[in-house]
Amino acid sequence: xxRFDEIRLPNKQVVRWRFVDRENRWEIAAxxxxxxxxxxxxxxxxxxxxxxxxxxxTDEFSEALGMVVLSAALRVQSIGSMVAGTFIEGLYQxxxxxxxxxxxxxxxxxxxxxxxxxxxxxxxxxxKQLHGLMKDRWMWSAHGPLTSRRLLxxxxxxxxxxxxxxxxxxxxxxxxxxxxxRGSRDEQ
Length: 188
What we know:
Helices cover about 20% and strands about 30% of the residues. It is built from two helices and twelve strands; from the N terminus they run ββββαββββββββα. It has a five-stranded antiparallel β-sheet with strand order 8-9-10-11-12, covered by helices on one side. The longest helix is centred in the last third of the chain and has 18 residues, at about 160-180.
């Protein structure tokens, strides 16, 4: 019997949606295999999953479903820079954990806003500019731990998110060395 609450993708992946009573909203998520409950993970190690207050006939639900399907179908695996099973040369692989930024429960995380972390130390934040003169460019802002000495520049813009991540991670390593410390993934 065919299910009407899922979309099957190549490589046996599946996107499913369901109403979660205790949350009073719809969950849309990608799974590794049709019969399992193991969520498909993004390059940052986060599950490919979205929530929608509106049901299947709403724009909000359609947008969330589209993002999950796109993320699952074009998933960048953390091992070997793979996109839909094809190796992409030159794509920067982050050294640290990057998570979608979420201010509070009323602010759903977005693929346009990320924070980098070295354990509990914030590396920095990257955000895709959606409007204005810098539209579609990624603003990066480097943070690091509280130190007495800082480096400049600690903020700027890049053409893509991966390059912005690289710059934040590089700034973090330089800042830590400048203050006599080391990041957990600094190999220099």
